[in-house]
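Two entries, shown back to back:
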Amino acid sequence: MWLKQQNKTYFVLSVTTIKSKTMSFRKLHGLFAAHKPADLSCYHLIGTLKTNLLKDLNASSKLYLPKLVKVSAAGKDTDDKQLWKVEEKEDLRYHPLVAGPYFNMLNIQIVSGGLDTKSSGVLVLSVGKASKYISAYQKALLPRQYHIDIQLGIATDNYEPGGKVILKSTYHHISREKFDRVVAGLTKASKQYNTNYSGLDMQSQEAYDLAVAGKLETVTLFNQPSILSARCLNFNPPHIKLEMECLNEDSEFLRETVDFLGRSLRSSAVAFRINRIKDGPFTSNNSLLRRQWTLFNVAQSLQESKEIIKPFIKNNKTVLDNLHEEEIATT
């Protein structure tokens, strides 16, 4: 609190300080999920989120401008004692038109990436000082689930639908039974590869504990992509809808897998739509759509995420945490 004298008028800064502006800002801390649309890069998604949140923060901060208390002489009473008049005025030094936006920086990071520009779906993000949540989330090795729309009969140079078509082939010989058999074989081969080369002794107590907990399939080697499960949801050649659950994958791996799947069927295939429907505890139901990228919705999502993240991460930690740390230290 300060006091200034000017022509017998005193201005006192009110007890309400500019610190109250940061109440909403301090609540932006933790993890939440946003739904990334197709044809929108993760870089532009973060930029749009920052713009929206900073705009809402600065708009709400206008309610918390510091007040100046004006104390001025108001004459004398009948006993010849000085009377004082007290008025409150806004301190225009902190007005956005004078000082500019109060909030101009916000830390938003991608926690669980893997989606390219053409892909869509659940994207886990962190805001504020949430580094401990980021490392814990990544070490938990949480599976991610996708819906992949496949088109048989064509192959492109970059495995994307917009790429140059380099091969056309027939697909009428592919039946539902044959497709399911090839998908099951691909899944089994991926599991065996990661289990055999993970550095885990299958005769050890660690392997036994993982098998009892049903997490032996989650063993990976140096972040090697792994397919945990896959099943066909809709079979209507040349269009097929495939559901796939993976670890340590990205969109490029999924597109290459679809291309390999087409060649395994003695045909060709391209993934023309990849949609992530689940990332650990986050699903399409609790991820924010583009129209929901506002301060109110993000703050509410952060509050809800705290209840589902901690137990989910704790239950998905494996006994291989120390093993992975030793492998990284020796490389």
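entry 2 starts here
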Amino acid sequence: MQLDAIDHELLKILQRDATLTNKDLANQLHRSVAAIQERRRKLNDQGYIQSTVAILDRNKIDRGLITFPHVHMNSHTAEILIEFEEEVSKFEEVMECFQMSGDCDFILKVSTANLEEYSNFLRDKLAKLPNVSRVNSSFVLRVVKNITAYPI
């Protein structure tokens, strides 16, 4: 599917507010409701829109501490890396997991209530995974920018 200027604008708007109705979107984009509904369906079907979610205030739900553990593995076979990815994906504290090039093998984004909860997560879950040799943790002191919209 080739995206045109209207598709790009539609995606930009939806990244800011996915709760807008097709009628609202049609008014903003000067198109018919049916045309917007069809475009939105195609964008969903083609995987341009992966999901529609509510972004919560982490402080209001007692998940105020964000930590980025840099995980170093002692082996790098495909089986070991896949096993790590599968296991770490099961942890509710892990918001994101990235396999990296460079100094560490994985960087995680972990959300916990406080330092004690993170310490328990590190000791009782992450450090117990097979082939994890070292974890260096960085703690978020202040969020300067936090957006979810990609530039289109």
